[in-house]
Amino acid sequence: MRHVDLCSGIGGFALGFEWAELSSPVLFCDIEPWSRKILRKHWPNVPIADDVKELASDPERLVPGCDILTAGYPCQPFSLAGERRGTEDDRHIWPYILSIVKAKRPSWCVFENVYGHVSMGLDEVLSDLEGEGYAARPFIVPACATDAPHRRDRVWIIARNVANPNSIGQPRSAKEQIQRISNKPRKSIRGSQDAPRRWPAEPAVGRVANGIPRRVDRLRGLGNAIVPQIAMRIGETIKQCETRP
To answer: Considering the entire predicted model, what is its pTM?
Structure first.
C-alpha cells in the first residue's frame, strides 16, 4: 500500500507499517528540521515536506495518491499538561489534515494523540471523518500494552473509507464512541516475542550528560514519537482486513 505520513516525527508509523509488511511511505511531512534529518537518513528516497498547511493549500498537486494516511498531529491543543486551548491554539491543524483526507480519499486513516484528546476535540475528529464516509473508531492503547516499561496512554483513531454500496455499516456516533472508550477498562495487547516487539531494559535518564550530540533534539524527538510496535499491530490488523475474503 502507498502510505502518506503527516506530522511524521521520526517515522514511527512508517517503521511499524513496514514491520507489518503493510505499506511503503511515499511522502513524509514534519515541521521539525531534526526530525526531517532522521527521516532522510532512514528513508533517503522518500520526499519530505515541512508544512501540513502548505500541503493542504493544494493537496491535489502536492500530495501523492495513497491507500493509507497517518498523522500524529500536535497534542498541545488537547494535552492535560498544557493550557488546552483547543481550536484556539495555533498548533491546531486537524482542519488542514481533514482537507487532505477529503482530497485524496485514502482507504484507511490512522491518527494518534494524547489521552486528553478524549475530552477535547475527539468528537470533532470522529464527526468530521464520519461526514466524509469513514467508519472511525477510537482506541486507548498504552505503550505498556506492548511491554514497554512505561504507561504512555494514547488515543489511536482508525478510520476506514466505507463510502460505497458495499460498506460494512455505519459506526456509532462520535458521542457514543467517546463515552465507550472513557468507561472501558484498558487491556493489554501483548504480542509474540519477535524482534520488533521486544524492549530492552530502560536506562535511567540523567539530568546532566556530557558528550551526547543533539541530546535535546533526541529527547524531544522520542517524546513526540509514537510507539512503532503499536503501529505494527494496527498495520497487521489492516492487512488482515484487506486480504480476507
So the answer is: 0.78
